Amino acid sequence: LVSSYEPHRRLIEPVITPRFVPTCSDELLQGLGKLARDKGVRIQSHLAEAHEEVQWVLSERHKDDIDVFDNFDLLTEKTVQAHCTFLDTDMLSRMASSCSAVAHCPLSNSYRATPRCVHEEFCWEF
Fold first, then answer.
1. Which ranges constitute the DSSP H helices of the chain?
2. β-pair type (15-16, 42-47)
3. Which tens digit of pLDDT belongs to each residue from 64-115?
4. Residue 75: closest CA among 50, 89, 58, 93
5. CA spacing 20 to 30 A to 102: which of 10, 48, 68, 94?
């Protein structure tokens, strides 16, 4: 449906939305990455939102959730990741290198950001 319109006329577009790593199997993420790549659609999710989520992903997947998204081609120039509260500077650099965007909500992130998130430094550095 979307491909029938010229890009500048697309006011509404479909988006691939894996909620966040803890709720998605590898098979689902693989399929969503392929779908996004094949159809050229945008991707949105939540990344490194809460300390507990980051720790759960590390304990269950044995890697950071940014690595999980990257492994399944879900970290692209068409990706918007909410929060990113617990990404370190190297991970934020990876976001920038992949041309992925961060959707930052200061109020929401302030509830979960212990220690303080590095978005302020990120905004000035990149």
1. 26-39, 51-61, 65-71, 89-97, 106-112, 119-125
2. parallel
3. 999 999 999 999 999 999 988 888 889 989 999 999 999 877 666 666 655 5
4. 93
5. 10
pTM for the model stands at: 0.82
48, 86 in Cβ contact below 8 A? yes
Task: Report the distance separating Cα 32 and Cα 18, nearest Å.
Answer: 8
- Residues with Cβ within 8 Å of residue 113, at least 6 apart in sequence: 85, 86
Q: What is the mean pLDDT of the chain?
A: 85
User: Contacts for 25-29 with beta carbons within 8 Å, 24 or more apart?
Assistant: 26/72, 29/68, 29/69, 29/72, 29/74
- Contact status, residue 78 vs residue 41, Cβ threshold 8 Å: yes
- In the prediction, which pLDDT does 9 show? 75
What is the residue type of 47?
L
Please give the backbone phi and psi of residue 74, each rounded to the nearest 5 degrees, phi first. Answer: -110, 15
At 12-59, the pLDDT tens digits run 788 999 999 999 999 999 999 999 999 999 999 999 988 889 999 999
